[in-house]
Amino acid sequence: MQPDALIPRKFFDRPATEVGPELLGCVLSHRTADGVVAVRITEVEAYLGQSDPASHAYRGPTARTEVMFGRPGHVYVYFTYGMHYCVNLVCQPEGTASAVLLRAGRVLAGEELARARRPSSRQDLDLASGPARLCQALAIGRAQNGTDACAGTSALQVRSSQRSYDEKICQGPRVGISSAAEEPWRYWIEGDRTVSPYRAHVPRRREARGK
DNA sequence: ATTAGGATCTTCT
DNA sequence: GAAGATCCTAATG
Question: Within 10 A of A192 (CB to CB), how many other CB atoms are there?
Answer without folding.
Answer: 19
